[in-house]
Amino acid sequence: MTARRIDGKTLSAQVRTEVAARAAALTASGRQPALAVILVGGDPASQVYVRNKIAACKQAGIRSIHETYGAELREGELLARIHALNQDDGVHGILVQLPLPPHINAQRVIEAISPRKDVDGFHVANAGALMVGQPGFRPCTPLGCMRMLEHVGMSNLRGKHAVVVGRSNIVGKPMALMLLGADATVTIAHSGTPDLAATCRQADVLVAAAGKPRMITGSMIKPGAVVIDVGINRLPDGTLCGDVDFASAEGVADWITPVPGGVGPMTIAMLLANTVQACEQY
Ligand code: NDP
């Protein structure tokens, strides 16, 4: 058996087309959706992510406000800027690219963003809303993964076991809660999980978000599982790979996401969707 691929490029293009239509309708009514993207410091990967987000906004008809500051920016100055953007009725979404320089408290910065404009879904108000199943902004990466599951007919996971490898606040934990919301039985695995292979082999849906290149091999996958690979790892030769060893996994899984071209493009598409939603609700 060779796994079928969940094509994040094609699926994200569909989402972006839907988002562009909603953005156009808002613009026609005199309210163009706008996203403020703040970058602090010169981290090269962050610069690429920000550039991609801004280009995606433009393509979808979303106005972007791009603010770049040096790594020496003081936390108070950043908080003041966020407060100003919170007050600005022409701005519907605010995103502060992480990581921030070590002298800035990232959680304090996230909490300064108005929950109504928190299109990354990292504010405690939105994290809490996810926890209790109330409407709110959901983090873009897990939201994109859920959209991929929906695409392969896995939106109702009652009777299915989902295993998430990784428990970060931006991917692992919200992913687990979203899977729980879809009625799955959920296990969260992390660096302290004994016999990770046996845990993973129980998964009908396996989400790999550990940041470890190719750590999930075919022998750790239940035959016929859906495998979502969130990992983006750059190898010494410059190429990208996921947390899943694609070559051995595709012989075991039923569906699998490639890296690149899987979850990555979905994350940006869901950011655009959240921004348009923020404008619609404003
Ligand atoms: P973090 O480093 O914050 O979290 C990694 C998680 O994996 C931790 O919970 C850690 O466990 C767990 N882990 C690490 N090693 C192991 C192991 N050997 N066995 C089991 N669990 C392990 O990463 P992020 O959540 O921010 O990102 C995860 C990956 O996803 C990265 O590769 C990142 O680049 C990628 N990513 C991709 C995105 C996309 O758009 N496709 C968006 C965001 C991230 P513990 O908690 O015990 O330390």
What's the architecture of the largest domain in CATH terms?
Answer: 3-Layer(aba) Sandwich
The count of domains is 2
Percent of residues in helices comes to 40-55%
Principal-axis shape: globular
CATH topology of the largest domain: Rossmann fold
CATH class of the largest domain: Alpha Beta
- The CATH homologous superfamily of the largest domain: NAD(P)-binding Rossmann-like Domain
- Secondary structure tally: strands: 11
Instruction: Calculate Rg over CA atoms.
Output: 19 Å
Mean pLDDT: 98
What class do helices, strands and sheet pairing give?
A: alpha/beta
Q: In terms of per-residue confidence, which ranges show pLDDT below 50 for 5 or more consecutive residues?
A: none
Output the helix-strand order.
EHEHEHEHHHEHEHEEEEHEH
Distance between the termini: 48 Å
Summarize the structure.
The chain is an alpha/beta fold.
Q: How would you describe the overall organization of this protein?
A:
With 282 residues, this protein is an alpha/beta fold. It contains 10 helices and 11 strands. The chain has a 6-stranded parallel β-sheet with strand order 1-11-8-7-5-6. A 3-stranded parallel β-sheet has the order 3-2-4, with helices on both faces. Bound molecules: NADPH dihydro-nicotinamide-adenine-dinucleotide phosphate (NDP). NADPH dihydro-nicotinamide-adenine-dinucleotide phosphate binds next to helix 10.
